[in-house]
Amino acid sequence: MWITFVIGLRNLRRRPGRTLLTIGMIATSTLLVVFSIGLREGSYAQLIELATGTWSGQFQVAADGYRETPSLYETIDDPAPLIERLEARPEVVGVTPRVNGAGLLSVGDRTVGAMVTAVVPEAEKALFTVPNAVKQGTWLGAPDDPEALPIVLGIGAARRLRADLGDEVTYLGQAADGSIAAELFTLVGIMESGDATLDAGLAFIRLGDAQALFELGQRVHSLHGKVHDIDRVQAFTGAFAVGEGLELAPWMVVAPGLEQTITADRVGGDIFLGIILFVVVLGILNSMLMAVFERTRELGIMLAIGTAPRRLVAVIAAESAWMSLVGVIAGTLGGVGVILALSDVGIPVGSEPVEMGGVLIDRMTPINTPLGSLIYPAIIFVAGTLAGLWPARRAAKLDPVHAIREG
């Protein structure tokens, strides 16, 4: 068998120009595939980080049905042991609880509807980037009056209320026991998340203040967590038991729109990669057909002296395999090298960078993945090798007498 591969390799020297052209085409196509996948997967990773690392978290725990229809009364009654169990897992970076309540915010005679979200300020800052979106003031820092309760408003809500730092903000809503929830807060920060709709009706207060305001005791509405390896979050959430009446959901479930967008974009990308793969197959097919045509007389003589047709098929297939192998290796190394070179500097996205929740994306950063640097190059190699089988089978079916006469 090894002799067949040696003969196939030596045959590449017959037409060095055509061989180099075919190998160059395979290498260029492979490089494009590796780089395209690296850029695509890098962009997806940035989008996922933007969506999960700013605010929502890479996984969430809430009462069954809470995500679909949030309610003040659907709570996690004893969150502390669950948080401890989650944070004890090696996959988990950290977990933080939140409370949500809708109501009215007032400054003077101006009022807006708002969704008040209560957080543990230090934990949010350690896990997520939304505290970085505070453009004025502090992230739930202590007001000048030590007895005052701090609040952070979205810039849209602050403008509608015409509120400045230090102003008193009145909250009015409903508590979990059916009573009126009313409290005075001091505006200590104004945030600009990048989402105008969010900024128009979002307010942050401290978790303990919200639990007292809404008469929740130690109850919370949701837990939001972060993992070390986001690629394994689905396996983690599928294996971890949170208890009866609770749901542990990965980011794909929490943000289905993002998952669907990435899936749809992958389909379009795969069509592009399929076109490149077709070009590779066509190029190798053309090269091997020309080789068979030029060697018709030689192949006829080989068949006439007793060379087995399957041996002829193996030699020609070995030629296409060698060209595919060299081209794929060169293209993969080139693609991986380009990605490594751009991994630190990135590719500018244009004049309008994306900013959301304290994260600024002004460059696309490609990444090397097994899909781009191993799987697709292997597919190209196999496809290129198989492309040589048709010319090889055609050569094996030649009539020796006719091939010698016409060659």
Distance between the termini: 28 Å
Give the overall silhouette.
elongated
Q: Which percent range fits the helix content?
A: 40-55%
Number of domains: 2
Strand content bin: 15-25%
Written overview of the protein:
The chain has a six-stranded mixed beta barrel, surrounded by four helices. The radius of gyration is 32 Å and the shape is elongated. The protein contains 15 helices and 14 strands. The protein has 407 residues and is of the alpha+beta class. It has helices at 2-11, 16-56, 79-87, 121-127, 155-161, 196-200, 207-213, 233-239, 251-254, 256-294, 296-304, 309-342, 370-387, 389-396, 400-406; strands at residues 59-63, 92-107, 110-119, 134-137, 150-154, 168-174, 180-191, 202-206, 222-227, 246-250, 347-348, 354-356, 359-361, 363-364.
